[in-house]
Amino acid sequence: MLDNAPSHDGGDRKEVCIGNRLAVFPPEPVVLRSQRALLAFNTASLPAGAQVTGATLTLTWRTGTGGPHSISLFRQTASWDEGDSNTGTDGVGIVVGGHNCSWPGDAEFDRANYATTNSVLGGGARASALATFDVTPLPLVFSASANMVADVQGWYSGAVANNGWSLRLTNETVAPSVGIAIATSEATAVATRPTLDITYKKALGQGCSGGTECGSGICVDGVCCNGGCGGPCQACNVAGNVGTCTSIPANQDPAAECAGGLTCSGGGACRSVCTADSQCEGAFYCTSSVSGSCAADKGLSAACAGDTVDGTGNHQCGSGACTDGVCCNGGCGGTCQACNVAGSVGTCTNIPANTDPSAECTGGLTCSAGACRANCTADAQCEGAFYCTNTVGGSCAADKASAAACAADP
């Protein structure tokens, strides 16, 4: 922007000038006028809570006159945007060669009195420079100064309005026709456009693989943490408190820190006893409702029985079924089935024919192929104290006592 022609700044041009020139804008006399540039960057892509540690501004030299050149960077304190005109009216009028920077409601820019050099050329700016760079015909790199970092952090957090920066000659009283032209965001070659490289540390709770990524310098449980969190039953990734070292909730032990299958108490320590299965690791059960210990779940065919925690004994078995005194692959509740059949212990199997160990069948009859017989054809098909009354469709009758009448039967 020219201090005596605020409506002519080349807001959409491929380059902008920074320097001094002799300008004639009647009725003012021929006097030394300054040219400054404005630029701003969107910091919204930074992750939540980022802690900015570095900011490097890179500009590309297009051409220059006079010299040597020293350019200074200032924080812009007045709002602005790229308007739609190059007339003397702010943001209104025809397009003459491109857009202009408009200054909505900004009285700091002296449009009315062109004969007076405006001390706030380009709107309000911070009084002192953030950084200064001696220019050569190379990319102009403003390395991160503490003030530049503070600006970027403030823009990102919202603590400081993001009005960008202004660029000017460090000494604007030097002879005229001294200055440089730099590529803008409209430059044809993308690689020459202004860039702002930002380095940052992650906030608490952000994912990490090492402490160097974190503002706290500590990465625990895969997140940036507020402390080392090295105590038992503590973690930094507990839901609702990610990023803060917190006691692991009761009845959990995600890092398997507790011995004997026990879990955390919820107070930052491992339990010493259990009173319920929920206080043990997933593959363990509690042996007693009073000062019990956690025991590993039993496999199929292992002996099991009811206890004070579970009267069925089912909780002792990994399968969840304690049947016929052994851990079984199922509930095995069908008639003439059992889980303790010799040769198949632990597997629900049909009870062998001509037996009925649980007396499930009525009328003295026995089992056959997983069901009770409906009749008999031989004594072997009856319980031990019964006999079969007929070889064809007989029934089982209780053995007769001594002196009772008896006779041959079919």
Could you explain how this protein is built, in words?
The chain has 5 domains: 15-201, no CATH class; 204-247, no CATH class; 256-296, no CATH class; 300-350, no CATH class; 351-410, no CATH class. Helices cover 3% and strands 23% of the residues. The chain has one helix at residues 146-157; strands spanning 15-23, 31-35, 37-39, 51-59, 61-65, 69-75, 81-82, 101-102, 131-135, 140-142, 165-169, 178-183, 195-201, 219-220, 223-224, 234-235, 246-247, 284-286, 294-296, 322-323, 326-327, 337-338, 349-350, 386-388, 396-398. The strands form 10 sheets. A 4-stranded antiparallel beta sheet has the order 2-1-12-5, with no helix packed on it. It has a 4-stranded antiparallel beta sheet with strand order 3-11-6-9. A 3-stranded antiparallel beta sheet has the order 10-4-13. A hairpin with a 7-residue loop joins β18 and β19. The radius of gyration is 45 Å and the shape is rod-shaped. 34% of the residues are buried. Residues 83-123 have low confidence and may be disordered.
